[in-house]
Amino acid sequence: MAAAISARVTSLAAQVKAAAHSVGFDAVGICDLRPVEREALDRWLAAGMHGTMHYLERQSSRRREPARIAPGANRAVVVLKSYWRSGDAPTREARAGRVARYAWGEDYHRVVGERLEDLGRMLVELGSTAACTRSYVDAGPVPERELAQRAGLGWIAKNTMLIAPQLGSFTFIGTVFTDLPLGVDDPFEADRCGTCRLCLDACPTAAFPSARVLDATRCISYLTIEHRAVFEESQRELVGEWLFGCDECQDVCPWNVRFAHEASEPRFTPRIEVVAHDLEELAALDPVEFERRFGDTALERAQCDGLRRNATAVLANRRGDRPARQLED
To answer: For the chain, N or C: smaller number of CB within 10 Å?
Structure first.
């Protein structure tokens, strides 16, 4: 009997992984839903390094206890999908600001979310209970990187990104919760960053007070996307040339230099309106035009006011604007 159960568990896990690859994911692993380490998150929140992302406080208990995310589930199927594109933004012109690679094409929430829904339906066909088969991509209280590491997909690097061998860190992480009796993968225990600190040193805003600790309030991605208020002068200067997001710490990572490869997903093909925009136009963009151009891209997250603010900041940085009191000095 035990042998038969073990064989079914192994067979089901193999079928799930085959299903994940069949719908377009580049890597897949399976893990349990035991609690994750909580001290680091508690210290980070207590230090205020999450800035205005108050939802992280509200979600903290479920982030620590992933079994509470989808009641009835006992496994997480964790997948990776590469979005890397070589070189700088294609056809980028001098009048454009810099945009993080993950936002060059169609909104990854849509693309990866649809693939996860396909995978979820396959899990139900394999016997998963529909009520507990829930999928998430960069949303909800899911501790994605911790579960991905537990599922054997990679390790959490010094810049807090997940690095997957043979893929690098330019990947989206997706999760499907299930009650299928699946065998779990061995966690990825090795820290393959070694003594390298290129990512930490490359950060233009010194947003890493120490390895694997990110002060979001100094992070360009946070400032240009999650931060909603008008920039203070110091924040505007931190943004530099970045209109949306930032890739600095990932671009220098040796694992990306060596292993990142062109994304196979056609919907991640760079869009001209994203990578070859005109900053002057964006600084005066109205909500209707914003929705027309960017409503189905990741830039929608910044909202129209945020994108106008960001464009104005990049233009001011290029002009070398300084506060009046500094000019008087």
So the answer is: N
